[in-house]
Amino acid sequence: MDSQPKNQLNVSVDCVVFGFDENQLKVLLIEQDQLSDTHIPLTALPGDHVFEGEDLDHAAGRVLKELTGLEGVYLKQFHAFGNPNRTKGAKDATWLKQFRKNPDAHIITIGYYSLVRMEDMNPKASSFAKITEWVDVNEIPDLAFDHNEIFEYALRTLRDDTESYHISFELLPKKFTLAQLQHLHELILNRKLDKRNFRKSVKKIEELIPLNEKQKGVFHKPAQLFSFEMPERRN
Amino acid sequence: MDSQPKNQLNVSVDCVVFGFDENQLKVLLIEQDQLSDTHIPLTALPGDHVFEGEDLDHAAGRVLKELTGLEGVYLKQFHAFGNPNRTKGAKDATWLKQFRKNPDAHIITIGYYSLVRMEDMNPKASSFAKITEWVDVNEIPDLAFDHNEIFEYALRTLRDDTESYHISFELLPKKFTLAQLQHLHELILNRKLDKRNFRKSVKKIEELIPLNEKQKGVFHKPAQLFSFEMPERRN
Q1: Using one digit for the tens of pLDDT, what is the confidence trace for A31-79?
Q2: Are B4 and A80 a contacting pair at CB < 8 A?
Q3: Which residues are bridge partners to B224 per DSSP?
Q4: Which of B10, B53, B80 sits opposite A77 (nearest CB)?
Q5: CA-CA to A28 of 20 to 30 Å: which in A173, A204, A216, B87?
Q6: Would you put residue B189 in left (φ > 0), alpha (ψ -120 to 50) or beta?
Q7: Four-point Cα dihedral A17, A21, A24, A28, nearest 10
Q8: Helix (H) or strand (E) holding B25
Q9: pTM strictly above 0.95
Q10: Crossing angle for the helix pair A147-163 and A178-189, nearest 10 degrees?
């Protein structure tokens, strides 16, 4: 009655960690160690296998920590990628043969993403990651496997989430101006927003609380400060 | 260098097909065949293993067809579920032992959902499905594995997608009234909507096209008709 002759797949997680500072949106990449002297640079998203008996969310946190040293980053699952050819590129074969027992296995990967303040992070490469680096989202090189596709999907998801104002809550200082909020949105969406329309739309956000307080220590006319009331996280 | 001693997981897909008619929102369930005479009813979402070398989207379509006969349904991936205990409930053990080579395997499942017009569908049970049935979303019984959780997650996703107006495009007749659109939204969201606010918000939808045409054959004052211009489907 068992009609599944071949269903032993490998499952991995890949983490797309976006980093934000005042002026840039970057993503955290690793350079994978090369045992042989092929010298092909293999830049990739931090990712690795899920263990049998391990929860997916747990695996995402573990893998990110093992490869980059980052801990306690809130990672949100966004999509599973299962194209059987996703790891079959010529550039990936050498690496897979060196590091994997079954280099030809069909690997389903679950994508996770996060948006963090770069200044709060101090990534350090370990395990098969040789280097970690923050790379501008507009200057992503050719990545290992289908990681360019996974990155693009994550960026679209981040932008959609930003449009619905779910994402920026943790990135700004506790008290911020609407100009700071607009700047963050422009950076993520990669386009200028009309100031009047932006203010009209953000004022509909229930979680945005106007404070009875203004900026201090600025040379221009001090702007009003706002804060966010955190909504319950889904799941 | 291979630090993954145990990473042979099983991967499956589960399909949450919501069916809509004028007055109800239902979901398509199957009763799983029981080889032995335990007589425990095992109601479940249609789902089964992904084959090695098979694309996930393809697997979702194949599995839905194999179990329910439905073909050509647009299925959208929404979440991966990987809790190692998700198939370890006592009620599931008997069934797994009968139908699976590795009844104790850790199975990651990828959830897909769809929203269809029930009248266009004619499901017929086959493979290990004995019966297919449309069940009201408010009357879901205790399901196999973690399928109650998967169903709830799909329903939340459907509601979120409805709030952003992405979902209802294919469910209404080609030409429809705003009352019909509001009724569909109320059914999915499971709450009454204020008519004035609803109309104000839907009129902002670019894809909603007012037609130079009114209802025919109604006893009340005929309402204006609208149609949708389909947006590009994302991936």
Answers
A1: 987 666 666 668 999 999 999 999 999 999 999 999 999 998 989 999 9
A2: no
A3: B214
A4: B80
A5: A173
A6: alpha
A7: -20
A8: strand B25-32
A9: no
A10: 150
